[in-house]
Amino acid sequence: MADKLPPPPQGIRWSVLVLVSLAMFGNYYVYDSIAPLADHLEKLLGFSDTQLGTLNAIYSVPNIIIVLIGGVLVDRMGARVATLLFAGICVLGSILTAISGAFPVMAAGRLLFGIGAESMIVAITTCLGQWFMGRWLGLAFGFNLSIARAGSYAADVSPTWAKNFYDAGWQQPLLLAVGLCAASAVATFAYYLLDRYAERRYTLQRPAKTERVILRDLVRFDRSYWYVVGLCIAFYSVIFPFRSTFAIKYFQHAHGLSLQDAGTMNGYVFLAAIFATPAFGALVDRTGRRALFMCAGSLLLLGVFLVLIYTQWSLWISTAFIGISFSLVPAVLWPSIPYLVQENRLGTAYGLMTMLQNIGLAGFNFGAGWINDRSHAGADNPQGYTPMLWMFCVLSVVGLAFALLLRRREMGPHGHDLETASPRRKHA
């Protein structure tokens, strides 16, 4: 009987995309709400750079294990139920972060938020892989990331558009984040209802749910998958510790910008990504060359830190480099995974990749803060930030190396057609 049902109309397909993208907006806003508050937390609550780094590092710590479990749960219970569950955990975590200025309480809130947020991203990513596998996959991922980046941009420039909140102290901006997180949860509930409605009335391309997890299967993914994972770890270990934790403070202390100007400058990275990410996704859908685009984006990221270390060029140049890189690499990296793993292991594959990504995020967020404290980085010693920049420079080289290895393999006999405009599905 189910095989006689018609396919879902495009309106429902794109409505699903809009709803899960709005959910990502709130998710990303809450994650990035710490960076604009860094100077406030230092001055009003006496937090050190190590503590500031820990607030984002601790977000990642539980996901070293839990996000893999979350990916397995997505495969077992389905993306829509998992998304709703994890969105609720996010709301609880954001509330706990905002209710007290005590560092242990705030850190506990960030930890709880991280448990929900990363697994929610895995669930939404799996949802997109199921609803858009084929011609529009790159565009769908690009649009989703675009709206997510809008959340990060809104957080970066919040000292300007929500100036009254910041003038009132450290807590009001976090309460604003709670409100946006709650709106994100509402969007996930709407997606849940729409997906359930579509499942009853249309034929949906859904893989069979996994009945059990064989641990040894986790290391049997194709080598191309592991190259993408390596690039993912290195790339995001640069992007988020720098851009989402320390960049605004660095711009204030090393380049003399005000909080508002530093937030706006940092926000341009995401402003560019809002428009460029879906454009790059559509371009890759049309032309292929996925590994080549990953190489180009990784090279630009390396250029960011060489410019900051060795030149006195305008911040616009390094911001442009990181903006293009941050638009290009994610638009290609995440939609490549459905071509490298089996459909019913998609949640597990994304969960494993995100788990390893979070090891990098936790380690290098904490590491950047520790290096800054050891180097006495601050407004009185802006050169103390240089060792942190060198750390990110080395990580950028590692990411570029993985991208080049992926390009080499995909151009050979064991590739998965990632370099063609219309990849054929291959089961790893």
Task: Describe this entry's structure for a reader.
The structure is a single chain. The protein has 428 residues and is mainly α. It has a single domain, classed as Growth Hormone, Chain: A. 75% of the residues lie in helices and 0% in strands. Helix 1 (10-31) runs antiparallel to helix 6 and helix 4 runs antiparallel to helix 15.
Topology of this protein?
Blueprint: H1 10-31, H2 38-45, H3 49-60, H4 66-77, H5 79-98, H6 103-132, H7 137-156, H8 158-161, H9 163-167, H10 171-201, H11 223-255, H12 259-287, H13 290-310, H14 315-336, H15 346-374, H16 386-410
Helix pairs in contact: 1-6, 1-7, 1-10, 3-6, 3-11, 3-15, 4-5, 4-6, 4-15, 5-6, 5-10, 6-15, 7-12, 7-14, 11-12, 11-15, 11-16, 12-14, 13-14, 13-16
Which descriptors apply to this entry?
globular, disordered C terminus, 428 residues, 16 helices, mainly alpha, Growth Hormone, Chain: A
Distance between the termini: 32 Å
Q: How many individual β-strands? A: 0
Element-by-element helix/strand order: HHHHHHHHHHHHHHHH
Strand residue percentage: under 5%
Under CATH, the topology can be stated as Growth Hormone, Chain: A
Q: What's the number of helices?
A: 16
Mean pLDDT: 85
Q: What would you say about this model in short?
A:
The chain has 428 residues and is mainly alpha-helical. It has 16 helices and no strands.
